[in-house]
Amino acid sequence: MKLSPEADVLIMGHPLLFQEQSQVTLDEITTRKFQDNLDALRQVQIRSNGIGIAAPQAEWPVRAISVGISDESRARYPDAEYIPFNFWINPQIIESSSDTCWTWEACLSVPGMRGWVERPASITVAGYDRHGERQEAELTNFHARLMQHELDHLNGILYPMRVDDKTMLIPNDAICHQDDWAEDWPTPNAKITPIGAISRER
């Protein structure tokens, strides 16, 4: 398929978002069609003000993601670390830490909501770049979170499916009023952790 830079982001409920995507062959990565689709995927991410996007979110059923925080998208995550733009094709986690952390996650496919989600604090991820060259990275903190979130999309998982308590799923507007939340609600650390920051405790 040819992906349009004007493609809409699929919203939770669409069947493609719940499917595990197939591996991409190395020969396919270097084709003009695949390269054009990567560029289109990046444009969909930027146009949607996302810090990451997985191909199936743009109705492109392959194991590819685009990540990166631009000046525009930083407004959504003002306390997040800088993450350069990069493509990951066939990414997989080859190692993850036993220690975990929490943050308020959001998703272009789940508009208007945020969830307090626990994930491994650090990971080692391997895959291919847009040129079909193998790449590997040790990621920590918010960058590790972003990669795990996007990789979940390739396996048919959206972050609300990782929220372990319904009180940890809130309207996005509520995050702007954390100072007004009930004491220690929904947890002491969830109450005081701003968007893009990491908490080592629930």
Question: What would your notes on this structure say?
Answer:
19% of the residues lie in helices and 24% in strands. With 202 residues, it is of the alpha+beta class. It has one domain (15-192): Alpha-Beta Complex (Peptide Deformylase), CATH 3.90.45. A five-stranded antiparallel β-sheet has the order 1-2-3-6-7. A hairpin with a 5-residue loop joins strand 6 and strand 7 (134-140). It is globular and about 55 Å long. The model has no long low-confidence stretch (mean pLDDT 95).
* Largest sheet properties: 5 strands, antiparallel
Strand order of the largest sheet: 1-2-3-6-7
Number of DSSP helices? 4
Under the CATH scheme, the architecture is Alpha-Beta Complex
Helix content: 10-25%
> What is the distance, rounded to the nearest whole angstrom, between the alpha carbons of the first and last residues?
42 Å
Task: Report the CATH topology name.
Answer: Peptide Deformylase
Low-confidence runs: none
Strand content is: 15-25%
Mean pLDDT: 95
GO biological process, one term: translation
Cofactor: Fe(2+)
EC number: 3.5.1.88
Pfam families: Pep_deformylase
Structure at a glance:
This protein has about 200 residues and is α+β, with helices and mostly antiparallel strands. It has four helices and eight strands.
Secondary structure: elements and pairs:
Layout (H helix, E strand, L loop, with lengths): L25 H4 L2 H16 L4 E3 L9 E4 L18 E11 L3 E6 L7 E8 L1 E7 L5 E7 H14 L14 E3 L16 H5 L10
Antiparallel strand pairs: 1-2, 2-3, 3-6, 4-5, 5-8, 6-7
Cofactor: Fe(2+)
InterPro entries: Peptide_deformylase, Peptide_deformylase_sf
Organism: Endozoicomonas montiporae CL-33
